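Input/output pair, single chain:
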Amino acid sequence: MKIGIYELKAKKGVIRTTVKYYGDSLDIKITGDFMIFPEDIIFDLEKKLQGLSLNDLQNLPKILEETLSKATLFGCTIEDFKNSIYGALREVGL
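Output:
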């Protein structure tokens, strides 16, 4: 198993993404001190990303946009979340 952690400083807050890569499967966790409403949307996003395979990585932007567009973001953007996840994926070597 490989683990990658990436922290992105958004306009207001930090988005911390942890990626665990094992076999052909990814486990992605998002934490930090960013503000989003409703807060549970992050848990919904993590569920959708749970077990994502390398072949499905091209769907990542679509999943992020569909999920986070239902929320109100304060001082951060959907692009910030994308960059944080892709940063963690680079740390793992993907």
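Residues 2-92 form a domain with the Enolase-like; domain 1 fold (CATH 3.30.390.50). Residues 19 and 90 are 10 Å apart (CA to CA).
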